[in-house]
Amino acid sequence: MTRRQRVTFSSATGIPLAGWLDLPDGDPTAVALFAHCFTCGKDSHAAARIARGLTGRGIGVLRFDFTGLGESAGEFADTTFGSSIEDLIAAADNLRKGWGGPQLLVGHSLGGAAVLAATERIPEVTAVVTIGAPSDPAHIAHLLAGTAPQIKARGEADARIGGRTFRVGRGFLHDIGEQPQAHRIAHLEAALLVLHSPQDTVVGVDNARRIYQAARHPKSFISLDGADHLLADRADAGYAAEVIATWAARYLPARPAIEAAATDPVPDGAVDVAWAGGGRYRQAVRTGTHDWVVGEPVSVGGNDAGPNPYDQLLAALGACTCITLRMYSERKGWPLQHVSVRLRHDRIHAKDCGDCSTSTGTLTRIRRDIRLDGPLTAEQRQALMWIADRCPVHQVLRSETVIGTRSVDLLADPVPA
Q1: 121 in Cβ contact with 97 (< 8 Å)
Q2: What sign results for the dihedral spanned by CA atoms 242, 246, 247, 251?
Q3: pTM
Q4: Which sequence spans correspond to the domains of the chain?
Q5: pLDDT per position as a tens digit, 366-381
Q6: How high is the pLDDT of residue 277?
Q7: Given this model, what pLDDT does residue 335 score?
Q8: With 0-12 CB in 10 A as exposed, 13-18 as middle and 19+ as buried, what is 61?
Q9: What is the DSSP string of 266-299?
Q10: Tell me, what DSSP letter sits at residue 52?
Q11: Distance (Å, rounded) from C-alpha 195 to C-alpha 149?
């Protein structure tokens, strides 16, 4: 079971870029950034299948469309290999807000050349994978040989690559010829896995040899025998994903552990909350019999690993309301068949509240809509609505509450006896 979140962020020049964040069911052991091939996009078969394979092994994956491709804005004719590197850096920055940055980079074809170039600027990276990647971005020039004269003469021209038409600019041709790729590979500060098919007719397997020979250890090469350049066969993409996940496990950091004290039993009536790892603001909550997580949405730098604290507060009020109404109706023998509660909270100016004792500043407003189903009389419905305001959590929220806070030693019991 996996989850998928739509992600949008801005390139270095402010262009909106679109992507998918694929997450495993539960906390990812690591997060990866995937760079698609020159003629592909985030929704290509290879990108989608490899992301699915990695999430199945517990690794989250962000895949996105480079500027001017897929759902991302901008003009592809205005891009260069260098701008693709900047797009990768922007993607890593966005991922860093919720997950602490990508530890694994995976690049397909020219995307493989891009991740090799971007690694030095993403400090969290400990492992890099290339799939059918050219040893030098200039290799792509032979695919544009037929239109190169027009591009040089007119500044841009339409080129048909992999069955798709792209408008390529003069700046792109110039830029791919100016990249110090051999130096980058030789000074790669990460473990390297090179995947390549001997039958690749777009980027010959000799490129894999040059990448492997230029890189320092630790490095590995695995042949994708029988696969085509785009990994169009589902089995080939699935095999690549399994290989990547198995190989990368040796180089990826272990899952952040919860504080050792969190393994201690929780006393009756107490709730323990602690940093949980797997996300910037993810918290582990435990009672004597239950465990769950609290998080924050992506918009504030979290990873949406769980409901945020305000959601939990509203849930407590809603659950208490439903339980109280059911207990009361059963005791009275009333035909209440179902209760549902929808809650929202916001901040309002005190002057806008007609029945509040506070007259200045702002205050918190909770709106609670209650639906009662069943053949109830008008008097029974009115009584139940009155009882709703008497549920214990409602009473706590409305009454004065004293919160005692103290600092405790690591070896002390954090919950007073």
Answers
A1: no
A2: positive
A3: 0.62
A4: 2-248, 260-398
A5: 889 999 999 999 999 9
A6: 61
A7: 95
A8: buried
A9: PPTT--EEEE-SSSSS-EEEE-SS-EEEE---GG
A10: H
A11: 33
CA-CA-CA-CA dihedral for 172, 173, 175, 178, to nearest 10: 170
Helix residue ranges per DSSP H, 270-351? 309-332
**6-20, 127-141, 161-175: which has the minimum mean pLDDT?**
161-175
Residues 6+ apart with CB under 8 A from 260: none
Please tell me the distance from the alpha carbon of residue 17 to that of residue 74, in angstroms, as a whole number. Answer: 9
pLDDT at res. 348: 81
Residues 6+ apart with CB under 8 A from 55: 2, 22, 23, 24, 28, 61
CATH superfamily of 260-398: K homology (KH) domain (3.30.300.20)
183, two tokens: 């130096």
- Letter for the amino acid at 110? L
Amino acid at 96: R
Q: Which CATH architecture has domain 2-248?
A: 3-Layer(aba) Sandwich (3.40)
Q: What is the DSSP letter of 45?
A: H
Residue 414 sits at φ, ψ, to 5 deg, of: -70, -10
Q: Are 45 and 237 in contact (CB under 8 A)?
A: yes
Rounded distance between C-alpha atoms, residue 385 and residue 97, angstroms: 43
Looking at every residue in the chain, the average pLDDT score rounds to: 83
Quote the tokens at residue 224. 């994708």
